[in-house]
UniProtKB/TrEMBL annotation:
This is GST N-terminal domain-containing protein. InterPro entries: Glutathione-S-Trfase_C_sf, Glutathione_S-Trfase_N, GST_UstS-like_C, Thioredoxin-like_sf. It holds the Pfam family GST_N_2. It comes from the Eukaryota. It comes from Aspergillus caelatus. Residues 2-93 form the GST N-terminal domain.
Amino acid sequence: MNSPQPIILCFAPNPWKARYALNFKGLTYRTEWVDLPEVASTLKRLGVPPSRTFSDGSPFYTLPIVEDPSTSEKLGDSFDIALYLDKAYPDAPRLFPPSSVGLHASFNAHVDALFSRFVILFFHGMPLDPETAEVSHATFAARAGVKGWDELTVTGKAGQITLEGFKSALTELAKLHSYTEGPFLEGNTVSYADFIVGGWLQFAKVSLPEWGELQKWHEARWERLQLALEKYAKVA
C-alpha cells in the first residue's frame, strides 16, 4: 500500500501573487514545491540571483521563481514575474492596465509594508513541514533579529492590541476599495493590484487564527475580495 502523500498548504503571499497571475493569464504551468531550508540552494542551482538583501547586505533568497521553457527565462520576485508575463504573453489578459505599472509598484510596496508590520500575528500559524520546522524557526528568528522562535508571537492583551492595530491599518486600504462597486479595487475589473492583496489574504487564511474575524472587517470587504479571487486560485 502506498503511503499517503502529505497535504501541502499554500500560504506564502508572494508565490500566491505569481500563482494568481499565471491563472489569470490562462497559462499552463506546473508547481515544484520547495521547503524553506532549501530555497537558497535551489535558487543558486538554477542561477537565479536573490531579489533582495538582508540589512547587513547579505543575499536574501526568496520564492517564487518562474522558469519559462519557451524562452529559457528564469525570474524571481513576484512583481518582476508579473511584468514578464504581460511582456512575454501580450495576447493573454493584461495584468496591468495601460500606464499603471508605476502605480502598481508603489501599491505593492505599500501593501507589503502594511501586512509585514503585523506579520508577528501570523508566524505561529504557518503550516511548516514538521521535519524541517526547527530549521525554519531559526531562519525566521534570524530574519527578524530576535534570539528565538518563541519571541515571534504576541498573546493575551498585547496580542489583542496588535490585532486591533492591524484592523485599523487595513482601514486605509479598505477606503481605496470604497470608490467603486464590486469586489476589486477597480470595481468588477480585476487587475494585479487585487492579486497583491489577495496573496496576503491567502497567507492570513491559513496562518492567522483570527481569519474569521478579519473576513468580516470593513463590511466584509476582505471576505468578498478573497471569494472573488477564487476563480484564479487553482493550484497546479
